[in-house]
Amino acid sequence: MRGRGYRQPLELPKFDGSSASRHPVFSDASAGACAVGRAGRATGFFGGRTMDYEQLVLQCEEVLGYRFNSQQLLKEALTHASIADDRRNSNERLEFLGDSVLGLVICHRLFELYPHYLEGDLTKLKSAVVSRNTCAAVANSLGLTDLIFVGKGMVGRAERPSSLAAGVLESIIAAIYIDGGFDAARVFILRNMEPYISQFAATTHQ
Fold it and tell me: From CA 40, how far away is CA 179, in angstroms rounded?
């Protein structure tokens, strides 16, 4: 029986935008495509090796440091609209939910950390922390953009759009929230976003 919750996360490489710094298994997203079959089975061909859906799930769980009770949730979170038969089966709905969960967690954390900040200061800092660029940076540093299932039109691009990277992070947050509850989502968010809080607090509050 699969257990819920966190395990020790992997030490992950820093992401500088180059393909060489992406996730070590999926070091070259242009090396091949991935597809989701009608039976719900997915296969991926990355970096010269083929991985079935179960292998992809395990790899993603290692990256996230979280083990899912519902693999279907994880699959949905990693399915971009460009490959889904129906956009309702893509990660767009999870992205919608994850955006709100992320915002709540960050707002609460800022409220705790900076009791002397005025509302305007908190709003400015929150906007920087949850921005598309910040979310994309986190997703890329985790290697999530190399794990997402995309359509043929997006395979082979040297870089994935920042909107795609930010979206997959938000959909993963929502999937963790649904699967493991608010506390599990909060742990994941703060573990990956707290450094950005400190960084932006030092520059936005003058």
Answer: 19
Q: Write the pLDDT tens digit of every residue in 143-170.
A: 888 777 665 555 555 555 677 889 999 9
Model confidence at 89, in pLDDT bands (50, 70, 90)?
A: low
Please indicate whether residue 11 is annotated as part of the active site: no
Q: Which of 76, 95, 99, 179 is catalytic?
A: 99
Q: Contact, 8 vs 65, CB < 8 A?
A: yes
Q: Which of 76, 95, 146, 170 is catalytic?
A: 170
DSSP-derived letter for residue 61 is H
Asked if 111 and 122 count as a contact pair (C-beta separation under 8 A), the reply is: yes
Reported as a pLDDT band with limits 50, 70 and 90, residue 23 is very low
- Both tokens of residue 160? 């994935």
Has 170 been annotated as catalytic?
A: yes
